[in-house]
Design brief:
It is built from one helix and 13 strands, in the order αβββββββββββββ. It is mostly beta strands and about 210 residues long.
Length: about 210
């Protein structure tokens, strides 16, 4: 009888331990870290009065890499950045929007943006509308007509609702290959370098 009771007790302890271990795995907190991505090539055809074209470079924050399927969150081509949410803008060769992505543009340093912006501040791509506006001084960059250099606008942080409802923030550091401190007209572009932080947990802060 004692032996049977001992076996039952050990079995109950094993089940309880396994259950706790499973719950701990489900509730594991993934640390939010800042990651630097360098030299994302985003060439386009056309331009200078001609319709722009060419494939977009599609990036996934959760995977920290370029992807070819529908798991992308943002995508780059020339100076254009689109999000995987909303509807097609109506430009050539743009990918389908299959996700729920949106973007909120926040003023501040990258480190200072720690809380998710209000839901009402997020925008999606739509017909003839970009969630991240295009054009010098309107979205993420300014263009110097004298030097022909494209520079990221300081203090612009982009908080992204990802294609699957998570959140990330990013800031663009450079539009030129190897991110030169002082790019010139001979610097190769477009090659994006940016910082990002991805929130994989259910928290509402970075």
């Amino acid at each position: 009888m004692k032996t049977k009771f001992l076996k039952l007790s050990l079995l109950a302890l094993f089940i309880f331990t396994a259950s706790c271990s499973s719950d701990d795995d489900k509730n594991e907190v993934v640390p939010v870290v800042t990651t630097k991505v360098s030299n994302i090539a985003a060439p386009q055809t056309g331009g200078q009065g001609q319709p722009a074209g060419g494939a977009f470079a599609k990036f996934s924050f959760s995977q920290n890499k370029l992807v070819t399927d529908n798991s992308w969150d943002i995508a780059f081509r020339g100076t254009t950045i689109i999000v995987n949410g909303g509807a097609k803008i109506g430009i050539a060769d743009e990918p389908e929007r299959t996700g729920s992505g949106a973007v909120s543009i926040v003023s501040g340093t990258f480190a200072s943006v720690t809380a998710f912006p209000a839901a009402s501040t997020f925008a999606q791509d739509a017909a003839a509308v970009y969630s991240i506006p295009t054009g010098s001084g309107k979205g993420w960059y300014s263009y110097n007509a004298d030097t022909h250099i494209i520079s990221p606008i300081a203090g612009k942080v982009f908080v992204v609702k990802t294609h699957d409802g998570k959140y990330a923030k990013f800031e663009i550091l450079s539009y030129y290959k190897d991110a030169p401190a002082s790019p010139t007209q001979t610097s190769e572009s477009p090659y994006y370098t940016f910082n990002f932080a991805y929130q994989a947990n259910s928290a509402t802060t970075f």
